[in-house]
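Q: Fold this one first, please.
A: Sequence and structure below.
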Amino acid sequence: MTIALLREMFSRMVEGKDATLIERYYDPSLQLFTNGQVQDYEAFSRGHRTVYDTPITYRVEYDEQAWVQDDRRRTVAARVWITTARPQEEPTRIEVVLIAEYTADGRIRRIWETTYPGWEDLPAFEDY
């Protein structure tokens, strides 16, 4: 269940840049731990809405050998690459290693991730 939901979220929300789907895929109690920083649901939602309103594009690739799922704990671990692109800039390929914990109703409640390069170091996300 969770691997399919994570893939669906990346496809529909991230690649589709559809901020209206945030509440579908993320629980209001969300905590995102990324590269030593912590965000709650409101900060996550606000940041994504801001970036999705720009001309940035996303393409997600998966390391098919890296999926780990624990149905009892409703968790999934993955390794993905998210390539971002903006007009007049070279695309940036970001490696993301993550663990996502889901609620019983299938929304992400916690994410622990590390990225390279770090989101916080990229000009495309300076207003995030």
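Q: Good. Now the second chain.
A: Here it is, same layout.
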Amino acid sequence: MTRSTAIGLPLAALVATALGAFLGPRSGAVYAPGPGDVTPPAARSQEDPGGTQDGESEDPTDAIRDPVLRAKAKRVAALSAGLPGAWRLTEMRPAPPAQPPVRVSGILVVTEHVLSLIAHGVSDASLTGETRELVQAGAHYWRIGTFETLEMAAVMGHDNFDGDLVAEPRLEPREYEISLMANRLTLSRRDGARLVFERFDVNSFPPEAARFVDALRSGRDPADLRR
């Protein structure tokens, strides 16, 4: 199923394409180690628990002699180390002429080598003539490549942008420009589409969630707590 946005698509399809910005036009790299990859600090070997000798650098990029390549490797390493965590979708700007959903929410969770996204949206009835619930979910291998872009390859996923629920082909590749500043993550494509996330810090089990679990355990309907 093609994710490209083209003038002339029905408005319903354009809105669906807007929510599909994260999975957008497929391009580039399938997940595979590359010669220029830099392993983030969290993934370093634990074979030497004693640490480095006095005077030795703990940063493997310092061993790169060429200053330009060393600077690039440090940027790649910083992105690789800064991306893991939980992120909340706060902004969606689809590629023209697609129209964004009137409401959209999503969570992106990034681990060392795999990221997962779930997003829900509601189409604008004034544009499409109907309100549609749009859903997308998937897990993907990821890395920061030598071009300092986010490279992804699907583990599995699905969406209903075209009406029916469609499964994602395995290892379907994607590539995004990435900007990571403090707690703000921006993913963008060359066609103008952009997704913005803010870091979603979770340090403990929420007290409200604990009350829901207690209600479930006691035989009460947790929905009663939401009224």
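Q: Anything worth noting on the second one?
A: The beta strands are 85-93, 103-110, 114-122, 133-144, 149-159, 166-167, 173-181, 184-188, 194-199.
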